[in-house]
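B., you asked whether I could sanity-check this one before it goes into the benchmark set. Here's the sequence:
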Amino acid sequence: MKNNKAVVVFSGGQDSTTCLFWALKKYDEVEAVTFDYNQRHNDEIEVAKEIASDLSVKHHVLDMSLLGQLAPNALTREDIEVKDGENGELPTTFVPGRNHLFLSFAAILAKQIGAKHVITGVCETDFSGYPDCRDVFIKSLNVTLNLSMDDEFVVHTPLMWLDKAETWELADQLDAFDYVRENTLTCYNGVRGEGCGECPACKLRQNGLETYLNRKAEVQ
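And here's what the prediction gave me:
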């Protein structure tokens, strides 16, 4: 019988929540995993728990606090300003090794629960310069995970080639538009839903939303 069980790397944000809805449409069994890496806003974990509960998805929270200690950044330290990269530098919100570790632990969890599919919301189109959101990295890690555990996992990236407007469109196609808009936490300042409107994550999300709504209005 073809394996039809998946694990979604889940933060409770717009992208991962859209991926969770995508997985629920595609797979018979779906579980979500959230990582506690001492992020500044513990609300992120609470939102993830609430959404998983709303959608009746089994939810795992794994302790990755060592990552926050090893790689200080604006998402784990209040004394580091959230800002975009300048002069070729990475944004201060980049957490070195985060997606590498998250996907590796998600695959270990998948191995234990008998899942062959791992879903993550990384995106190269709107990736803020993060090297671990690139398609080449995901494909490379997928090979490494399979070799390391002598298994046949498939790492899926439904948003890889979508911009934020197209991600909103996908949520709409999944009948999840309003839910994602109202219940997710994307904001770097910890404000749910529409967010603070000032941080890079909120601006990207809002610009994408406005673009999608304008496109939708044009065709109606």
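One thing to flag: The beta strands are 5-9, 29-36, 58-63, 117-119, 154-156. Otherwise nothing jumped out at me.
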